[in-house]
## 1
Amino acid sequence: MAFGGIQGMVAIERKPEPPPETFLSRANGKTFEAVRRLLDASGQRPYISSSLLSDTEASALGVPPSVISSVQDLSRALVDVLNRGGKGWRGYALAICCEIVGGNFDRLEDWLAFSEVLHAGSLIVDDVEDGAKLRRGGPACHLVYGTPSAINSGTLAYFQVQFLIENSGLSDGQRAAIYKEYVDLLRMAHIGQGLDLGLSITSPLLLDLSDAGMAIVEEHVCVSHRLKTGVPFRAFARIGATLGNGSTEEIGALGDFFLALGGAYQAIDDVINVAGLMNNAKERGEDLRTGRITLPVVHFLRAAAPAQRKVLLAELQAATADAPTHGRLLEKLAGSGVLDLCRAQARQAVRSELRALERTFPQAKLQPLDQFATLVIEDYY
């Protein structure tokens, strides 16, 4: 999985880079190997592994094998979405940050599952909240297993990673720091998701369509991005640097960079929802159909003359129920130039934080981060 393979998983010394698809394929393979190990740590339980309910815990709580076998389906939705694959590159944030501060990630490869399992669980819950129809090339899990089971399976994923924290031979200081990052991640991401759910095209925020009012709407969108996606990225980076025994300054600087990268990634995700993916793995225009206020929508409204904004807002509201309006408005959004603006803002935010990292790390050490950031925000995923 290494860029050049000279130190653990991450090459600090610059080597000729493989094509993005090659790197992502390697990252994906390593990540899902780790996921399989986590989900079936005992080698015997197909859905409730020892990483979720250990034999010791089951014995202490009086949970007999017959009951365990009868509730194996608790994680079916999670296993399903994980088996569909995915990009599998989020764990690389842990790996690269571990090794940039001098750690060796080879002995810690099981941690690649940490971010992927959390992410898969959040996708299941997000799809319920958004009324999504597709996920990773198949029907959203709540359409297959029902909403109650999907929610339970998705939230259960948040606790499955505890096995990694408790079984990685961490020092007391490392364990305490990682638990704090982990709990902060869950709290902030839920706040961000809650703010996102309030960003509806019928929101009172859109009662004021003046330039000042639109600036406030954009601020809400960006804060939502920062909390629901930026903070998890920051946590993965800080956890990786903690695993590598980084200094407080190094852990903080890497966290700041990945906070910006996560926000940029979410902005690009909003762009892709309008532009679509080549493999149609996600429904194009889903945000428009569900009436979400996204960064492209904000820029679309801001670009219009104040007198025209009410007309456009009425069209956006109509697009949630009328297919022809949805199709027409989707193409108008895609061709308006706002997608390029979102991409440019994302790139600028990441470049700025990358330059700030030079105050903490030699520039040569930052080259893998530069390459990784390019993969994340240039549509390679």
## 2
Amino acid sequence: MALEERPSTLESNRPPCSAPVDGRATLQAESGMRKLLSVPILGLLVFGLSAVLSFGASGGPLQVGAARVDITPASDAALPMGGYGARTQGFQRIHDHIYVRAIVLSDGSHQAALLAWELIFMPDPVWKELSQRISKELSIPAENLILAAVHDHSAPTLAAMTASRPPASANPAGPTPSPATIAYTTKVENDAFEAVRRAQANLRPAQVGFGTGKAYVNVNRRELFPQVGWWLGYNPEGPSDKTVAVLKFSDLAGKPIALLINYPVHAVVMGPANLAVTGDLAGATSRFVEQYYQGKIPTRGDAGWDLGLRPEEKVEGDGVVAVWTSGAAGDQNPVSVASGEDFTMVDALGKILGEESVRVANNITLMSPQAKIGSAQRVITCPGRRVAPGPRPRAEYTFTDDDPVNIRLSLVMLNQIALTGVSGEVLTPIYQRLKKASPYTDTIMVTHANGASGYIPHDAGFDQISYEVTTSHLKPGCAEPGIVNGLLEMMGSQ
């Protein structure tokens, strides 16, 4: 398809609001090579007794609801922060509020929920408790959920337990979190449930589209250093996926309801010297997108016609909900990071990623009001190992056998859009292999989803012994093929 010549002005020449089309037609989006396929799939084949499958017999009109709930702790709580082991003191102030955001989808027969909170991880016991509660009280099955963390290193850490799940049943070998951390974890779980409940209550007729763009906000962080080998650094020649994937949900008149944004980068613009709570890059991106659709972001004419906000797209009230999710970012850092408590780079990179998310969304001009929701989950178990104690980095490492590692794989199908989830920090080549082999053009990977399995290097990456490899509890040879083949089987590929 030839590229359309773009007008020179912004708002007046943006294409009209997206009109709904027959969900059984194959749709091609405008603006270059971006496209949306909305042919409902006929079924999914899932192999293995450990798989759980839920798939409606037929689709129906799409309904979508979205909500956000503030999970910012009290300013004087001084809770310990997650992500940097050397940072032992609690936070000292609030720089910006942090949130849990949720989108609920319905095809008339089945519902699914997509959720992300601006915290470092989704502990297994917390996921289990939260998913069971959503299933029991909101009738959304656990296998229809993708509950994820954005992997924010500048927010309170969580306990692998809540007030209703005592420490002994969560991790008897690990340190016992403080009562304040357990209380905050309980609060966050309740807030996450409330976000899904509100999103479900907000369900209304909607349409969906998918698009992708590029943002040069991340860089491979596995650098080869003299004498000590591979470690955390800056490696622009290493594998790095720049894709910004966006699911756009709007009402039938074209007014946006929610965006699901997926991009592979650690939310670590702020480092261990920062003691202020912030959503970091993930929060800054969501904040930009949400404020844009409220008309609070001024745009220049020479910023491009994609960035112009049409009056009919402006959303009042609670506005658009922009759910940011982390892609395969186990080896990806922000292209520039900050020292101390200078948040300039957080806002700058959040603006760049937010603008591209908006541009992608505004280029999705054909939408489907029909939906067919399918889902599947399975757990794969891989042999474990642990690095021998000692300083890191160092020239030589030895490893000993350790307990096996469970990795939860999740799949939510929305028409022919494959939303995959992995309960760990996946390195780029694993997703690249999955995307290449996937039968669905529109395939994304949400990491830190439905549990926490730690770093998941690709098999070849184990030969470059780096921070990710020494921190991982996995032996090579299992996780990469297990994830890729498992998800492909769940999609129905043979």
